[in-house]
Amino acid sequence: MALATSPPEAPAPPDRKTYSSDAAGLGRVRASVFAAPALLLIAVFLVFPALWVLYLSITNYRLSGVEARDPQVVGLDNFFNALVSGKFWNSTWLTVEFVLGSAVIGQVVLGFTIAWLMRDRTGPLKRLVEGLVILAWILPSAVVSFLWVALLDRDGGTLNLLLGIPGFAWLLDYPMLSIIVFNTWRGTAFSMMLYGAALGNVPPSHLESARLAGASGWQQLRDVVFPHIRGHILTNLLLISLWTFNDFTPFMLTAGGPDGKTEILAVYVYKEALIGGNLGVGAAISAIILLINLVVAVFYLRLLRRKS
Amino acid sequence: MSAIELRGLTKVYPGGVRALDALDLVIPDGEFFALLGPSGCGKTTLLRTIAGLETATSGSVVLGERDVTNIQPGARDLAMVFQDYALFPHMDVTDNIAYPLRIKKVAKAARGDKAREVGERLGLAQLMDRRPGQLSGGQQQRVALARVMATQARAFLFDEPLSNLDARLRLEARTFLKRLQRELGVTTVFVTHDQAEALAMADRMAVMEAGHIRQVGTPAEVFQRPINTFVASFIGSTPMNLLDAVVRGDSLEVSGCKVAVPESAAGLLTDGEKIVYGVRPEYMSYSAGPAEGALGGKVSIVENLGASHLVTLEVGTASVQAVVPEGREPVPGDDGYALPRADRALAYRDGDLVAAGRGGTEAGA
Fold it and tell me: Was domain B231-357 assigned CATH 2.40.50.140?
């Protein structure tokens, strides 16, 4: 009689094992077939170019000339040359300024402020503000760049007309400030939406509890809101820092000028590799940029993981 | 500590929903007061309006001698326990309890001492360094209470303080809260949708429906003499029997049975009038044999309540429920007779209680 109940239980363990390692029940071969197209795309468009850049960075490959036909491996010369050149460090410093100014300060502060002010609002004002901010984000770079060139133009620019100061050359006199403001305007939407969603996760009772204790607006932010959205803030910083670090759009406003004052790393690579034709040097700088990105990413991820 | 007085308090939400409709209410100093009602009746809105988290559309809120209607929540000297306790997850128990003191700029050492003192009193001494995430529901509730007690609040407001606890703990917490309130003597208003909780804890209670206070009184008054059929059906673990009846001389005809006129309505009913006859299942005595003035019918359902049983009788077209002590319960299909206690039965005309000296205070009607 005991047999009547025991058989169904006996095969259970092996059953469960296959279940956990092969939930779809496809088997290794068929599963690989399904995954292959995606892996192939990743290999062709992500892995190969990255490896190719690493290879180029140790050659003297050029766009034209003898080295274009017959590039020689020159070891780490390109890296050494980049690291001892004043232009590289100048570009790096400009990039740090650009990232801190337009992403870490500009987009984060503006994005959070808009999200905070709009958090309890509904209706046309909220839709209008969000619509405008998101519009700046989704328009193609070439289009917004042209708009800003028109806005900041020295002679017929909209801004000078509005301010009544014709002849003021924003892009020549304040080039870094111009691209920082431009990129803040351009990219705030992402931070605004992310913080908007994050603020929705802050329990209203926590804010109300602080209000009943008499906490001011700033104290509510410090004691309730920021601790709650810390993870969102770090994720946001990570993403927009990296995006801004690699951003090329400012080139369309200033072309890196005047006099190299807005020659951020992305622009520097472009000029070195494609204008100057030194593909090997450009590849080496690209590899260094990749390294800097990794360091920044690891820094933020460390902070994120420290979240108790 | 101070009394709370509401005068013509009205709250209309954008869109025209009248959450509170000209409420008048006085809660004396030191009272444990319950706001009871079904969801959407306005009880939480009322509590939040007292706290200042909602602004009144008209009317006023007076704390002690002070009109606080237009004063910020933080300046009202009120403390509130939220339904989810609203403990800050990134602060330990000490910091959570001391938070209101920190906002009031009490020195760090002093507020730490105060937090420990209150925490010890609530049995949290071993937990002062933990984060809320490391505490059980009951412990979290005590931290929330400690935070409220650490402030020198004039009154406490509890929003559904027990609803996040499991059933077993809820009973313990009920007793604990009642004792604590008695010891502290601070005016306390709490919101609940659970009538048993309100009856068990409150000194006095208000039953709300659709933005109105339907009845204010002690739990005994509200339980024994509900002012209208809404309160009658809302209060009580087993709902009151509300049966259509016709006055026939000096007795009532209910579903073909003849029952005595409720004592409270004696002399107030006219012959031939249609009324609603109300009697709680607890106020029925059940017997297997016929009795004078009893409602007789077939037993359809028997529900076990532990020490007693809830028996449902089919009397004519109506269902009548009676509570029967253990050991004497019938089985479905039996004939049964439920005799109402005339001194506990009630008569309702157009939904309102018919009685000379009505129990409790009527409000809002």
Answer: yes
